[in-house]
Amino acid sequence: xxxxxxxxxxxxxDIVAQRLADVRLASDRTASAEEAQLLxxxxxxxxxxxxxxxxxxxxxxxxxxxxxxxxxxxxLVMTARSAVADRVAGLRAGADDYLGKPFxxxxxxxxxxxxxxxxxxxxxxxxTCGRMxxxxxxxxxxxxxxxxxxxxxxxxxIDLLLRHRDRVVRRTQIEALFFGFxxxxxxxxxxxxxxxxxxxxxxxxxxxxxxxxxxxxYLLRQRAAAE
Length: 227
Ligand code: CA
Description:
The protein is an alpha/beta fold. Helix content is 41%, strand content 26%.
């Protein structure tokens, strides 16, 4: 799962990204409200950490757009505007949590983790397909209850496919997952990742298949029972 950091203070964005990486959460960064909108439209983010004072707009407007377009992406707002009226405005516009600057990075991480737990935790339907289940607490794949060890990229890929099981996951979504925004990538990296993942799932007898949807992307579904 990737997170999106929208913050124009490069130093602070670096610290946030590093602290998220410490708890194994990959992130993309942008300093622009417009670019954030583009990234959200094309990417698949688990949560967003949002600064309100951005050079090309107000984070509050980005939040409003997010909610008006029906996106339930969890958002933690971090801003120097910590007066009660500002907190209320942020929460009303659709923020899930609010952190006034300056803050401790420990508190930021704890709040992001709490946000992710709420978004994916108790009450939500379990992510299962075939004999496979995704354990949201350990972020690992279980086959018949036993953990299937996967390298980071394949683990991220199965996480994405399983969350969208029976629906097509577009190549652009996988690109956004594999490669940080603006990073170079080789065009066959996705094929290689999918190929390896297929082999592992077959070896583990996961009872699922990754179907190639030509020109679009991939889809995970339960394998039809053999005659
Ligand atoms: Ca700012």
